[in-house]
From TrEMBL:
InterPro entries: GntR_C, TF_FadR/GntR_C, Tscrpt_reg_HTH_GntR, WH-like_DNA-bd_sf, WH_DNA-bd_sf. Residues 17-84 form the HTH gntR-type domain. It holds the Pfam family FCD. This is GntR family transcriptional regulator. CDD domains: WHTH_GntR.
Length: 226
């Protein structure tokens, strides 16, 4: 038994944080994959029952998702999954280009050897997922890649920017893959970036990042015109 009287409070806070993170990941995944479609009305009670979690962690997760623009908390009207706004998505892509170029260069220079090996594996697994037309597997690998590359770049401000934009970006990918058959192109562009970072060549990583961002921006603008 701990002799520290504050220990139970610390443990309770840690448990609360863990449950809040679980709730966030579960709800975010449902929104990103369009399982909870844009415009869907939800409530704390519904989500608590759906994911087997208490209302407090669900409430915390919803506040975080609201800050990211994934849900709208409407006074006296409840909670709604935000709509996909393609014009806003274009602005997001333009912003990500600048930050991702910086992150790619830093990660290429600073990544540890173990990270470089995992980058290579992720690149191969992304292309394998595309060959199997497994969009969800690709998106999970993409999420792992961003966790790895942001840690490797060691720039907390760039990481905060990307993480804030990441859920909205992932949801748009899911929406896009439902309407276009170009998972192979997306995976190839991303795999080229991953391999360039693994190589340790900052200029190559920058060029691969630009090529990927060109593809993403073109794809997003084409969606706007459809």
């Amino acid at each position: 038994m701990s002799s520290n009287p504050a220990a139970p409070d610390i443990e309770a806070a840690a448990d609360s944080d863990s449950l809040g993170e679980r709730a966030y990941k579960a709800i975010e995944e449902a929104i990103v994959t369009l399982e909870l479609a844009p415009g869907t009305s939800v409530s704390e009670v519904q989500l608590s029952r759906r994911f087997g979690l208490g209302r407090s962690p669900v409430r915390s997760a919803l506040q975080r998702l609201a800050a990211e623009g994934m849900v709208l908390i409407l006074p006296r009207r409840g909670i709604m999954v935000s709509q996909i706004d393609v014009r806003s998505q274009v602005k997001l892509v333009e912003t990500r280009r600048e930050v991702e170029r910086l992150v790619a260069c830093y990660a290429a220079i600073k990544a540890a050897s173990g990270d470089r090996q995992r980058f290579r594996e992720i690149g191969e697994e992304m292309e394998a997922a595309a060959s199997a037309n497994a969009a969800q597997a690709f998106l999970r690998l993409d999420a792992e890649f961003y966790d790895l590359v942001l840690n490797a770049a060691r720039n907390e401000w760039a990481a905060k920017c990307i993480r804030l934009m990441q859920p909205m970006s992932r949801r748009f990918w899911c929406y896009h893959f439902q309407h276009a058959d170009d998972l192979g192109t997306a995976a190839h562009r991303q795999a080229e970036l991953v391999r360039a970072i693994a190589s340790g060549d900052a200029e190559q990583a920058k060029a691969a990042c630009e090529a990927r961002c060109d593809y993403v921006e073109r794809m997003t603008r084409n969606t706007l015109l459809d």
